[in-house]
Amino acid sequence: MKCPFCSFADTKVIDSRLGKEGNNIRRRRECADCGRRFTTYERVEETLPLVIKKDGRREPFDRQKIIGGIKRACEKRPVSIATIEKVVDGLEVFFQECGDKEVDSSRIGEAVMKALHEIDQVAYVRFASVYRQFKDITEFMSELTEILAQGGRNSHS
Question: How many CB atoms are located within 10 Å of the residue 70 CB?
Fold first, then answer.
């Protein structure tokens, strides 16, 4: 594997450990040229469905894109990166196991919103406001009213 610091192609594994969930291997590597160490993760290559965008384009399921959207929604909220990773892990497993070769982006967005609703309701409202593209304050307030009617459970505010 190529060193991320000096781009030298020869690195050696100095330590390997099973990941917390048991679905990946964490490897510490050392560059044979510059001597710097870095971590890599090895996981089974999984077949995920293509995502059908609103305009009909198809693109590969992108874990990092989903993580980025959730991170933005959770900014300055008490939600750890580990929690975000766990949510995305669950989404990957769900969409992989559903067996569909293609999935509408709206199904992914709804699944993210459902997960955020359980984790942090402020992050949920942030994500929903971008995802659902509320046209005006009335639509936004309607969503907030629905959350308040549910008793605001699982709120970390």
Answer: 25
Alpha helices in the chain (DSSP H): 63-73, 81-97, 105-119, 121-131, 137-149
Q: What is the mean pLDDT of residues 3-25?
A: 90
| Domain boundaries, given as residue ranges, for the chain | 11-43, 50-149
CB 52 within 8 A of CB 104: yes
Between CA 19 and CA 155 the distance in angstroms is 30
User: For residues 41 and 27, is the Cβ–Cβ distance under 8 A?
Assistant: yes
Instruction: Give which of 15, 11, 16 is closest to 31, Cα–Cα.
Output: 11
Q: Compute the half-sphere exposure of residue 103: CA atoms within 13 Å on the CB side of its CA.
A: 22
Rounded to whole angstroms, the Cα distance separating 17 from 147 reads 42
pLDDT over 70, % of the chain = 93
pLDDT band at residue 67, thresholds of 50, 70 and 90?
very high
pLDDT band at 130 (very low <50, low <70, confident <90, very high): confident
Question: What band does 115 get if pLDDT is binned at 50, 70 and 90?
Answer: very high
The span from the first CA to the last CA of the chain, in angstroms, equals 43
